[in-house]
């Protein structure tokens, strides 16, 4: 986690969940996360079974030069990354992992800026399937950010974290592309066969990505 807002929100989420896999929506006190609030958002499952913004902080809306409440989260991502993001979000809502995503945002004038996003499960009416808590923060802030809206965004890195394994020596399952181009991901179809080893470690298929398992050794 490179940004203070990401770490602040993660630490708060981790503290209020206690022994549960995820905290309840009503447990969140915005005054406890003032430093991260402008970058924080909550997603909800809409009628089309996709996630949209229920709440979005002011810095986030500024980066897109528009109010994000009610807008689709899924459609922000480049078409190439839709399957990866949907699979990643299922890991959050169903497996209660925390997803850390870096991506490159591009404007209509082809200027670019990198962001860090975190997604965490959130309970609503006893279920973790309809709400997500997250933060999205620019890794740097070029002078034009907030004037030129982000029009397209492409994933440059993914990581899944199992919080209950944080105290262990290897606590992170890292998600890497099986085939990479200069932006870090393949534009072509993923191979159908899953290699037994990636970078000398056992791996398995996770959508079009290779998952390198950490955690207990």
Structure notes:
With 217 residues, the protein is an alpha+beta fold. The chain has a single domain, classed as PAS domain (Beta-Lactamase), CATH 3.30.450. Helices cover 18% and strands 32% of the residues. The protein has four helices and ten strands, in the order H-H-E-E-H-H-E-E-E-E-E-E-E-E. It has a ten-stranded antiparallel beta sheet with strand order 2-1-5-4-3-6-7-10-9-8, with helices on both faces. A hairpin with a 2-residue loop joins strand 8 (197-198) and strand 9. The chain is globular. It starts with a helix and ends in a 5-residue tail after the last strand. The relative contact order is 0.16.
Largest sheet: 10 strands, antiparallel
Number of strands: 10
Helix/strand order, N-terminal first: HHEEHHEEEEEEEE
Which percent range describes the beta-strand content? 25-35%
Shape verdict: globular
**What is the straight-line distance between the termini?**
23 Å
């Amino acid at each position: 986690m490179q940004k203070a807002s990401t770490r602040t929100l993660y630490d708060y989420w981790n503290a209020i969940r206690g022994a549960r896999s995820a905290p309840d929506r009503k447990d969140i006190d915005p005054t406890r996360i003032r430093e991260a609030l402008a970058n924080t958002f909550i997603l909800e499952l809409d009628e089309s079974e996709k996630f949209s913004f229920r709440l979005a902080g002011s810095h986030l809306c500024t980066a897109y030069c528009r109010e994000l409440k009610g807008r689709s989260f899924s459609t922000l991502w480049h078409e190439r990354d839709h399957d990866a993001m949907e699979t990643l979000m299922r890991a959050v809502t169903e497996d209660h992992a925390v997803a850390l995503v870096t991506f490159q945002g591009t404007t209509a004038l082809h200027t670019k800026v990198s962001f860090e996003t975190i997604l965490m499960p959130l309970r609503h009416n006893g279920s973790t399937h309809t709400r997500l808590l997250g933060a999205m923060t620019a890794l740097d802030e070029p002078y034009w950010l907030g004037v030129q809206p982000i029009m397209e965004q492409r994933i440059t890195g993914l990581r899944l974290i199992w919080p209950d394994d944080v105290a262990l020596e290897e606590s992170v399952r890292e998600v890497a592309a099986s085939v990479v181009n200069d932006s870090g991901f393949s534009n072509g179809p993923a191979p159908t066969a899953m290699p037994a080893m990636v970078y000398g470690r056992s791996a398995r298929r996770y959508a079009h990505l290779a998952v390198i398992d950490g955690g207990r050794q």
